[in-house]
Amino acid sequence: MKKVIYILLSAGTVVSCSHKGSLVGKPGKKGELIPKEKAKSFVAERPYGMVAIPGGSFVMGMADKDFTNTPEKAPLKTVTVSSFFMDETEVTNAQYRVFVNYVRDSIARTLLAEAAGDASSGGDTGNGIADYAYLAKKVGDNESAYQKYLDSKGGRDGYSNDSRRLDWSVPLRWNTSDYPDVKYAEIIESMYLPPNERKDGVRAIDTRKLKYAFQWEDIKGKIVGGKKVNEYVKKNSISVYPDTLVWKKDFDYAYNEPLYDGYFWNNAYKNYPVVGVTWDQASAYCDFRTKIKRDYNQSLKKKKQAPMAFRLPTEAEWEYAAKGGHENATYPWGTPYLIDDRGCYLANFKPKRGDYIEDKKKGTYTYTAPVKSFHKNDFGLYDMAGNVSEWTESPYNNATYNFSSTLNPSISNKDYMDTRKSVRGGSWKDVGFTLMTSYRNWENKDSARSYIGFRTVQSIPEGAAKFKRKQTK
């Protein structure tokens, strides 16, 4: 018995010695609980095209004269908002087209991958529809253990997204003369309007098929039959193409056909703010921007943390940013006047009845204007007044200001079911007082207008020591 005990003790000594100086399987070093992460400050990386808005407190609400004397005006209250990044301009047509093209291409690639099935081209492109098979079907002998596990799941139990990764390295062919085979032609042509719906026989993408599917997390749940039901992961599918008919629907007896025909796709308008998007479409764009940044971070050899989500600003964040750091800013430029000392208008709006043009000498900006056409405010934000009004995350209701918190006040649509969303900033078709930083307006979340656009924000972690000033593409 003593020999057995001695042997066990000896074995224990050998195991102990074999791990001398190693942290494998141990929670710390030298018996101390010491994190492995280096003790250095976290630096928040500023996203491309955004500016950092430092946190602070301000008096929120219409402190200036309320020309409309409406009960929905914001009651005065002091609130505090945390730091965040904000787009320096409204989202432009060019930026939103990236989103639309991504949705178009991902749908086409999915249809091609489904049709390709288990076919394989052996890794060479140009051999037909097999080039577009799912990556899991093309790896062959190089398939990893994880990929084999995904194949065994067969798309069950929520693993379908991982097992059906698209091969984006193979270019799509939209020119009919480049179609590799008949099956490819059949699938790509299904993305276009059927011949009997085409105008003058022109092939055009069927925008009704351009839908973006995404998920969002509901951490609060909902009340059903008097009981709280938690459904943490919600799914949604949104048509993403802007409603170009808004240029006709918003104005009776006006000739706006040129804008209907080309405002979104013509390169002459690429740097103009996108319009004709609903609140849901703006939210889908935010999710897309988060996705592409997250996917990029995961593609790096030295993987980065998942980014903070891009989202629409709350009313409090929007108003605080619009004031540009000025405590009593009637307008974003900090003065109570709509013109500067040279008599030039400071924003794109309707100066007076029937007159939509600010610059009489140049005769420009009858409708929207290119972003950055007017001076930025002291936070570095352009067009926080005029050009297009902007969607916010917050619902529009008399009571929301009264029961929302004074610390980062937010009543999101997920908490407070109201189809009316707050719209801020005034637009190219509005008169001067609507440009006030505290002025509130609203629109139904499922409505699209020729004078409403949006910009996105991203929260900055409270633990960030400083902002990284250099923009990275």
TrEMBL record:
GO terms for molecular function: formylglycine-generating oxidase activity. Keywords: Lipoprotein. Residues 49-103, 266-457 form the Sulfatase-modifying factor enzyme-like domain. Gene3D superfamilies: paralog of FGE (formylglycine-generating enzyme) (3.90.1580.10). SUPFAM superfamilies: C-type lectin-like (SSF56436). It comes from the Bacteria. The keyword Kinase does not apply. It holds the Pfam family FGE-sulfatase. InterPro entries: CTDL_fold (IPR016187), Glid_motil-assoc_lipo_GldK (IPR019866), Sulfatase_Mod_Factor_Kinase (IPR051043), SUMF_dom (IPR005532), SUMF_sf (IPR042095). The keyword Lipoprotein applies. NCBIfam families: GldK (TIGR03525). This is Gliding motility-associated lipoprotein GldK. It comes from Riemerella columbipharyngis.
